[in-house]
Amino acid sequence: MSSAGIIDIHQHYGALIGVPGSSGDAGAGLERDRDSRLEGMEHFGVAKTALMPGHSYSAPRGLTDIRAINDGLHEYGKLEPERFAALFGTVDPRHGKASIGEVERVADLGFAGLSWHHRMQGLPMDHPVMFEIVARMDALGLIALVHCYANGDFEAPWRLRRLAERFPGTTFVALDAMTSPGNCEQLIAIAEANPNVFIDLTSTLLGGRGVLMALERLGAGRLVYGSNSYSMTQPSSIAALDAVDEAGLGEADRQAILGGNAARILGMTEGKETS
Amino acid sequence: MNQVFDINCNHFARGNDYVDFIETSHAVRLAESLPASPAELPDGCEATFQLTPPLYASLAEGIADNRSINDALIAAAGRMGGFAAGVVEPKYGEAAMIEIERIAGLGAKAVVWSARAQGVFVNDQLIADLCQHASAHGLVPMIHSAPFSINESLERVWSLARKCGSTPLVVVGALASWENAQAIADNGGGPDNLFYDLTGLSSTWDLTGLVRAGCSDRLLFASGGPRFLASILGTIEECGLDPSDRQAILSGNAAALLNLSQGEQP
C-alpha cells in the first residue's frame, strides 16, 4: 500500500439506467450516500478516491441536466474533501460544441478532469466533437478518464489511441482496461507508444496474470487501482484488489499501483517512479 | 410499374455512422427544404417514403430537440404525401412517453431507436417498455442493429423481441452484415415478431438466402437514404425473385405492417 494509503481512481456518484443488471442508487441523499461510501472505503483500506458521475443518465433538459449532474458531484465532493480527493465531471458528446462551455465551467469549479463511458453516451470516443472537447481540456490541464470496456465499439482502444496521439500533453486513464485479454493487450500496446496513457485495473477479469503482463511491458508506474463503486453499493470483494494480491508484487510496485501512481497523476504528492 | 415503399428514407445519412452528427437546427432546416420527391427513381418506379430521423443529432436542448426534429419530419412527410417516423430518447423517462403519444397524435407511423446512438443496451427493459407504449399508440417500433455493436447487436435485438411479446418490431440495418444475414436465415428469421429492413444490403446472395429460408414475408424495402436507393433496388432486381416475394418485399409487407389504408398504399 502507498504510504498515503490506497487511492481509488474509479468510483461513481450515482447509478446507471439502460444497462441490464446495473446497480447503484442515486436517490439516497448526500449524507447517507457519503456514509455508505466511507464505510466501503474503510472496509477495503481506501484512503482517498476520485469520483465521477454514472454515465447513463437522463437529460431531458439537455445541457441543463448535465450542469446539474456536475453541480451535484461538486456538492457531494464538498462533504468530504480530504477523502473525495478528485472530482471528474462529464459532458455529453451528443450535445456537440455546446459542451465546451461546461468544460470550462467544471475547470473553474476545481475539477481534476472529465470522464466518459462512450457506449452509454451515444457517440464514439474519437468523434470530431470529442477532439474539440479534449482540445479545450488540454489547454486547461484537465485529465481524461475514459472507459474502454471490452468490445464496446464506441470506446474501443484504437479510438483512445487517436486522442492520446493528438494530445500528448493530456493524461488519459483507460478505465476497465482489463475486461478481456484482447482489450488489455491492445491498451498495453497503446500505452507503450503513448506515455500519457495509464491503465486502470477496475473490473479486471484477468486476475494476477493481467497485472503481471502489464507490469512486464509498462512497469508499475503506469497502472492504477479502481473499484467501480456506485452509490449505495457495498461489494464483498473488489476484483482489482484481488488481482494485485494474486500477482504477488514487491512492496514498491504494490504501493505504486494502489496509490502512488494515482497520487502523482492527480497531483496529490510528488510521487516517485517505480520499476 | 414497380411500387416501392421505402420504410427508412433517411436524408441525414451521409454513409458514415461514426462521423455523422448534425446540429438539430440544421436537421430541421434540411427537413423543411426537402423536395416533393426525396429521391431520384429509376424509370418505371413509383415510391412512397417514410422519412426517418437522424441517428446523431445534437441533444443540447434535450426533449425539445426531439420535438423539433419530429415536427419537421412530420410536416415534410405531409408535403410529399409520405410518412414520418419519429425519435425519442429512451433515457428521457416520462418525457419520452409523452413525446411518443404526441407524435402518434400528429400522424407519425413509427419511432426509430438506435441503442448505440442513445447510450443504452437495446435489450434493457426500458426499451421494451417504450416499444410496447409506441405500439399501443399505433406506432411501429424500428430498432437499429449495427453489426457487432455491444449496444444493439442482433442477439440483443432478439432478446428485446422476446421481451416485447407479440409487438412487431422492425430491425434496421442488420443486413449490412453477412454474419447477421446468415444467423437470420439459419434461425428462420428469429423471433416471430421481427421484421428486417434492407438498409445496408449489398449482396444478392444474402437476400436470396433469406427468401429461401422462408423470410420473404418479414423483409421490408429500405434505402437508408436517397443516395442508396438505386443500389438496393438494383440488388433486389438482380436476385430474380418470384414476383409475389418481390412485391411483398418492395411494398406489400410494409403496407400491412404499418396498417396503411387503401388510399395510403403505394
Write the topology of this structure.
The complex is a heterodimer of chains A (275) and B (266).
Chain A: E1 6-13, H1 30-44, E2 46-53, H2 63-79, E3 84-89, H3 100-108, E4 113-116, H4 128-140, E5 143-147, H5 157-166, E6 172-175, H6 181-193, E7 197-200, H7 207-218, E8 223-224, H8 239-247, H9 251-265
Parallel strand pairs in A: 1-2, 2-3, 3-4, 4-5, 5-6, 6-7, 7-8
Chain B: E1 2-9, H1 24-32, E2 45-51, H2 63-80, E3 83-87, H3 94-106, E4 110-113, H4 115-118, H5 125-136, E5 140-144, H6 154-163, E6 169-172, H7 178-186, E7 194-197, H8 204-212, E8 219-220, H9 226-238, H10 243-257
- Count of helix runs of chain A: 9
Could you name the CATH homologous superfamily of chain B? Metal-dependent hydrolases
**N- to C-terminal distance of chain A:** 15 Å
CATH topology of chain B: the name is TIM Barrel
What name is given to the CATH topology of chain A?
TIM Barrel
| Basic shape of chain A | globular
As a percent range, the share of strand residues of chain A is: 5-15%
Mean pLDDT of chain B: 94
CATH superfamily of chain A: Metal-dependent hydrolases
Shape of chain B: globular
Please indicate the percent range of residues of chain B in DSSP E strands (runs of 2 or more).
5-15%
Strand tally of chain B, please?
8
- Biggest sheet, spatial arrangement of strands of chain A: 1-2-3-4-5-6-7-8
Largest interface: A-B, 35 and 37 residues
Let me know the largest β-sheet of chain B: 8 strands, parallel
Total domain modules of chain A:
1
Question: What key attributes describe this structure?
Answer:
heterodimer; A: 275 residues; alpha/beta; TIM Barrel; 8-stranded parallel beta sheet; 9 helices; 41% helix; B: 266 residues; 10 helices
